[in-house]
Design brief:
The protein has a single domain, classed as TIM Barrel (Alpha-Beta Barrel), CATH 3.20.20. The protein is of the alpha/beta class. The protein starts with a helix and ends in a 7-residue tail after the last strand. The longest helix has 22 residues. A hairpin with a 2-residue loop joins strand 2 and strand 3.
């Protein structure tokens, strides 16, 4: 079977099995790719509709998904002109680690569906860029392999999939592999209603029978390059980092059902804190009350996040509630933020409003879907150059010098 697939691959492109990868790499480094939206367009044409919409879509009417991006447009800059800034210092320190830029790669589940390199490729690109990578529990690659791929800090994002036994085993493995911090996501009591996934037959494609798959197979067959790489990669593997005692790795098809029975509570945070002795970060905070509760439970940082608009729709944009969270924390722990980051100016605005650093999800995942590691590296380079240019135009010498005086907020935000 393996030799048959390789012959089919060569038949699709006669030069060599890596020619498609080389072609996609040239695409993302060409002058035509100047922003994240360009990577999004390439990704849309490379992967099947079901995979792209899983990455691109949000919950229900996607109100929060849109607001995450639109909120940045409502914040304007207050630059300092006639200031010479020959060099900008983009470095910051997060959870005790020095990063080359204040943007980390957020956990993105199912990354191996977007590209065979998946989490390993993303972690390697993050390390080369001098920043951190956060690995999702819903990963297609072993956490040990992901950690070994990166030269930078790697953190683990924890769901309680499979119960406490499976979670404890994953925590122990993460500690032994050298993961430096644990991100605990608190906003997934159930999976959000992602209507694009339902219309595209994502569930049927992953777990249905042959007859159930038939109406949706055109999506897969229309992307022969992706299909061949998917098949050569072994198809749909179980989750290697969710090992249920006496059962083995959890099949990918069980994730949504498992989320409904693995809600994280404040009591769970106490148990997790006892089992994990390193820094613990609470991800999914949208109110000052939850931020203060996170401090009480021993968090080293919080992530202001609405899960990229993929869980409860019509909650506020992350940027809009960032000042509330920063005020509630009052410097006691670090504040991170994700949601809607597409440009270096977005990063600047988040830092001005109280974030120590941001997490980028879709911005790099588009690059991953477009061209694997090369696409992730291109996304990070776009953000880095944007960030440096923005600082120079603001007349600000470093990300550490950014504060609220560099931005103007809408009047209703200030109340």
């Amino acid at each position: 079977m393996d030799s048959f697939l390789r012959r089919k691959w060569r038949g699709y492109n006669a030069r060599d099995p890596m020619s498609l990868l080389k072609q996609s790499t040239r695409q993302v480094v060409s002058p035509k790719v100047v922003c994240i939206e360009d990577l999004r367009s390439i990704a849309e044409h490379r992967v099947p509709r079901a995979v792209f919409d899983y990455l691109d879509g949000g919950a229900e009417g996607e109100v929060t998904l849109r607001e995450n991006c639109r909120s940045f447009q409502e914040v304007s800059f207050r630059p300092r002109h006639a200031v010479d800034v020959p060099q900008c210092d983009l470095r910051t320190r997060v959870l005790g680690f020095d990063l080359a830029l204040p943007a980390m790669l957020a956990p993105v589940g199912y990354s191996r569906l977007m590209h065979p390199g998946g989490e390993v490729a993303a972690a390697r690109a993050a390390g080369k860029a001098g920043t951190a990578y956060i690995l999702s529990t819903i990963s297609g690659h072993r956490l040990e392999d992901v950690k070994a791929a990166s030269s930078g800090p790697v953190f683990y994002q924890l769901y309680l999939l499979g119960g406490r036994g499976a979670a404890e085993a994953a925590i122990d493995r993460a500690r032994q592999a050298g993961f430096s911090a644990l991100f605990v996501t608190i906003d997934t009591a159930v999976s959000g209603l992602r209507e694009r996934d339902i219309r595209n037959g994502m569930k049927e494609l992953i777990s249905g029978g042959v007859l159930q798959k038939v109406p949706y197979l055109w999506q897969i067959l229309s992307r022969p390059g992706w299909l061949l790489s998917f098949l050569l990669d072994g198809g749909m593997p179980p989750l290697p980092n969710v090992v249920i005692p006496d059962q083995g790795p959890m099949p990918l098809v069980d994730v949504n059902a498992a989320l409904a029975s693995s809600t994280v509570t404040w009591q769970d945070l106490r148990w997790i804190r006892e089992h994990w002795r390193g820094p613990m970060v609470v991800k999914g905070v949208l109110t000052g009350e939850d931020a203060r509760r996170s401090i009480d439970e021993g968090a080293a940082a919080v992530v202001v996040s609405n899960h990229g608009g993929r869980q409860l729709d019509c909650v506020p944009a992350s940027l809009r509630v960032l000042p509330e969270i920063a005020a509630a924390v009052n410097g006691q722990i670090e504040v991170l933020m994700d949601g809607g980051i597409r440009r270096g100016t977005d990063i600047v605005k988040a830092l001005c409003m109280g974030a120590r650093a941001v997490l980028c999800g879709r911005a790099y995942a588009y690059g991953l879907a477009a061209a694997g590691e090369a696409g992730v590296s291109r996304a990070l380079e776009i953000l880095r150059v944007d960030l440096e240019r923005s600082l120079k135009l603001l007349g600000c010498p470093s990300v550490g010098a950014l504060d609220r005086t560099y931005v103007s907020l809408p009047r209703d935000w200030q109340t």
